[in-house]
Please model this.
Amino acid sequence: MCPAFALRLSRRRALAASVAALVVCGLLAWWLVPFGRPSPSGELTFSTGSRSGVYQRYGVLLERALAEDMPDVRIELRTSEGSQQNLARLASGEADFTIATADAVATYRHQDLPEADRLRGCARLYDDYVHLIVPRRSPVRSVADLRGRTVGVGEPGSGIRLVADRLMAAAGLDPTHGITPVPAGMDTMPAQLESGELDAFFWSGGLPTGSVQELSERFDIRLVPLERELVGRLHAGGDSTTYYRSAVMPADAYPQAQGGVPVPTVAVANLLVTTDRIGPVLTEGFTRTVIDSRDRIGKTVHPAQLVDLRTAVYTSPLPLHDGARRYYRSAKP
Model:
């Protein structure tokens, strides 16, 4: 055999052996090293809502789902007054994720409050429906009829306080002087209505809200209709009021309170919110769990059933977080 040919053959054999070794090493690495998405780690705080509200009940169940999907992340839940306080906590760094209504988010941005430009959306969740609740025999038939009465309007940092004030103003009432406002939360307002301390109270939540359902089963209440024309007057305020829409509470939302009759009302979307300070890996994992746990959580907290992958990406008025965007791209059918 020619020495030059033998040398070329030897080189080819050595190259082939090297390639084979690389393939074997690659296969071993694939088998031995965990493959897939990077697993988030660290700590996060999730700001929820009042103790008996939907945000808190949803947060408790979501915490369990997150613990399963992201075992290296320690999660702390913090109750709050509601949407407005939740956004303030995000901005200050006291919370990493929260839920807030779209109108509260738009108001926060419109007022150019601290760190407003750092807020980011992760998912559009479910709609909140505004409830105006009175004893069944109450003469109150509209928002305007609240004049001179004692009304639960929600805590100062809540989303319901925001919409209640706007609804009363749209109905021609001064929210401060036209009524006697009581700044209370869902944990106390039902009992205050039962005892006669309140003539009415506002609430905004998913359907059905457990505390309202329980109240209707032990005390005769009625839901006051919020007619379409009132929503039209709300929209005249522009900016964040455009996130309100006319809606109807189905007749079976609160059977004892509604008597089989649907009730017109106002609805506004809830958003899962974070900031640009939170990394894409953690945000992607959090968003994935929110969508994937919908059916499990929805068995207990019914509004969660309405979380929909097809609409979750629409987080207006907030830009979508890069980590959430990465999740939606990976989840496309």
Q: What stands out?
A: The longest strand covers residues 119-135. The first helix runs from residue 3 to 32. Strands lie at 42-47, 73-78, 97-101, 119-135, 150-152, 180-182, 200-205, 221-223, 245-249, 263-275.
